[in-house]
Design a protein that fits this description.
670 residues; Four Helix Bundle (Hemerythrin (Met), subunit A); 3 domains; elongated; transmembrane helix; membrane; Recombinase; transmembrane; Site-sp_rcmbase
Length: 670
């Protein structure tokens, strides 16, 4: 007698059909939908077995090849959904944001997130939502290889090729709606002014495609050769529009972009893709691109699963704008990465000059702290002091170590850029880039620190000699030293706040620089009517060039100055423990406190602990800033880090192979 009953293995849906075919009718729309739901339930893997989805579909395809009766039922079930359904919204709306604008679309997403809109049962999107009803279905649908889906749809002899008049009418209506939308998008100012110049308006592919579609609609169906010829011209016009979209995006590196332009190009790309698929079904050339249809199928399933996802919409809509911000940051980030020995030691010198400037900023900040202002105004003057110092560092070509991560993170992301690398990224080259970034960062940290402490100590001594009293002494000096202590204060937590502000100031710098280019600020200044009579053309040109070159840097440096300057006072105003710790400023504060107390009055162990705390502050400044900047860079480029599980391993292996390269440039590197 068996004490444990074996779990009965449930038969698959296809096996049930083979046992009793009549039990699964597909004559009506309701029966066909029920059949499709059961069929895809059979393919859907458990959450822990999503990696087996491709293998499961391959098994079903093999089974279908052996049993044409099941294929016939599946074809009929699909046709019952297509023939009587409204296909327009599935092709013209599903996954494509509306032209009402980014913010209006976002508001609609929020509204429908709270209270979903009513669905029309005659809409084909309703079928998609019923068949792929789980919000995570798109994960396993996309996990199945493209070639496997192609095999599946080829086996069905894809029903969209059926010559059903009602189906043809639905497809043509959807094509017409998309055509007018594409023409309207192409005439948007943010698109039209950035396209390549055309000889005449008739040469504009956005207008041409709409005219060709009108010709296609008026052709008699009895002349297939003419249909093929006009459809071929229409396809060529659509492909020309795709070239225009790519041209505009390539120009964004030098001319900048806007949220509206990025959003419009995103919509245009999706609509062109839909039009090409629809043309494949009605052009009478007997060549249907199933691969393109599979791409659409995956996109529609994903978009329907995530149609109320605010996070997905923001990620998709802001993606190209974030990409351009990262690009403008990356263009400046190149100067922070050293390759040769000459560049490496130049980084040391540059960082030493930056450390010297910070020494004066640290002294000035503590002088300002002795003045009795209201919290807001004290924070304001702290901010002006910091901003002046950061701008001075930038304009003198000096280096501040903590400003590097927000810019160099983009250089690392470029090695994984799915928009620039069509093939598998070179992870070995990425490891080399990481080594360059780390040694450059180390050089700038050392360059800053070897100057900041002694220079600030000397300035504190000079203050004492000139005014006859120490800048800080006694309890004030001890409290300043204690603020840098890693265990007796929240300095390491506050260092994370600084890392976030460093990242945010980098984003602001990239955004402003992008805006200056996109809005043609330089040219507009030279043509400004208010400056026409009282400013020479030469001076206007100088100001225009200066703003084009430095506008983003000034915005980033000033914003960082105010973030750091106002932080502690905002904490005091609201009575919360909120402050910042910046490695170079903390090093300067440590020097001031040490001079005020005297080396002989500070236990060596305590002093060493504070010094290690300052290094810890620098570590968290770097870690938070670099991590956030890197995540934004890879996200905006469409990079999925989970596709590169060997990434960390490659960098670690390179470190053990060439550990010196993480500190010094190799002799062979030129």
């Amino acid at each position: 007698m068996h004490l444990i009953k074996k779990k009965k293995i449930e038969k698959s849906f296809c096996e049930k059909i083979l046992e009793n075919e009549s039990a699964y009718p597909v004559a009506s729309r309701e029966e066909g939908l029920s059949f499709l739901i059961s069929f895809f339930n059979d393919i859907r893997p458990a959450k822990k077995e999503r990696h087996k989805a491709d293998e499961r579909l391959q098994e079903i395809v093999a089974l279908l090849e052996m049993h044409p009766a099941i294929v016939s039922k599946l074809q009929q079930a699909v046709l019952t959904q297509l023939q009587d359904a409204n296909l327009e919204s599935a092709f013209t709306e599903s996954g494509i944001p509306l032209s009402s604008g980014f913010w209006d679309e976002l508001a609609g997403k929020v509204k429908h997130k709270i209270l979903p809109e009513e669905q029309d049962k005659n809409d084909f999107v309703y079928v998609i939502d019923r068949v792929f009803y789980k919000k995570t279905d798109f994960i396993w649908v996309n996990a199945i290889r493209r070639s496997t889906w192609i095999s599946f749809f080829e086996l069905l002899q894809f029903p969209l090729r059926e010559k059903d008049e009602r189906l043809h009418s639905h497809l043509m209506d959807a094509l017409t709606v998309l055509s007018f939308q594409v023409a309207n998008d192409g005439l948007e100012r943010d698109v039209a002014r950035y396209m390549t110049p055309f000889r005449s308006r008739q040469d504009n592919p956005f207008i041409m495609q709409n005219s060709l579609l009108h010709d296609l609609q008026n052709l008699p169906g009895t002349n297939p050769d003419e249909v093929k010829a006009v459809a071929a011209k229409l396809k060529a016009a659509l492909l020309e529009i795709e070239d225009e979209i790519e041209y505009i995006r390539q120009q964004q590196d030098s001319r900048g972009t806007s949220l509206k332009q990025s959003y419009t190009l995103l919509i245009l790309s999706a609509r062109i893709e839909r039009m090409l698929i629809l043309l494949d079904t009605i052009d009478n050339d007997e060549r249907f691109d199933i691969g393109r249809f599979v791409d659409l199928f995956r996109i529609v399933v994903k978009n329907e699963n995530q149609k109320h996802s605010i996070r997905q919409f923001l990620s998709q809509g802001v993606g190209y704008l974030a990409y351009q911000i990262a690009e403008h940051k990356g263009q400046k980030g190149g100067k922070y990465i050293t390759t040769t020995k000459k560049e490496y030691f130049s980084m040391w010198v540059s960082a030493m000059w930056g450390g010297l400037i910070i020494s004066f900023i640290a002294i000035a900040k503590n002088v300002l702290g002795k003045l009795h202002y209201a919290y807001f105004w004290q924070g304001f003057w702290y901010s002006v002091n910091y901003s002046f110092g950061f701008v001075l560092i930038d304009q003198t070509g000096s280096t501040l170590a903590t400003k590097q991560p927000a810019f160099t993170a983009n250089a690392v992301a470029v090695s994984l850029d799915s928009k620039k690398n069509r093939n598998q990224p070179d992870l070995d080259n990425l490891a080399v880039t990481v080594a360059k970034v780390i040694r450059s960062q180390t050089a700038s940290f050392i360059g800053n620190l070897i100057i900041v402490f002694p220079a600030t100590y000397f300035l504190a001594w000079a203050y004492d000699q000139l005014l006859g009293r120490k800048l800080l002494a006694g309890r004030e000096a001890f409290l300043l030293l204690q603020e840098q202590h890693p265990f007796q204060s929240l300095s390491l937590l506050y260092a994370c706040n600084t890392g976030f502000f460093l990242f945010l100031s980098g984003i602001i710098a990239g955004y402003v620089q992008n805006k200056i280019r996109f809005s043609n600020i330089g040219n507009r200044l030279t043509q400004h009517p208010g400056l026409h009579f009282n400013t020479s053309a030469e001076r206007k040109g100088w100001w225009a060039r200066f703003i084009e070159k430095n506008g983003g840097s000034y915005a980033g440096n000033i914003s960082l100055g105010f973030f750091l300057g106002m932080a502690s006072n905002i904490g005091k105003i609201f009575g919360v423990p909120f402050d910042i710790r910046h490695i170079t400023i903390s090093s300067g504060n440590m020097a001031i406190a040490v001079y005020g107390l005297g080396f002989e009055n500070i236990p060596a162990r305590y002093l060493i602990t504070v010094f290690l705390g300052v290094l810890g502050i620098g570590f968290f400044n770097f870690l938070v800033s670099f991590s956030l900047a890197f995540l934004v860079a890879v996200k905006s480029r469409g990079i999925q880090l989970r596709r590169y599980p060997e990434l960390i391993g490659t960098i670690v292996r390179y470190f053990f192979k060439k550990p010196v390269s993480f500190m010094l440039p190799p002799k062979s590197e030129q």
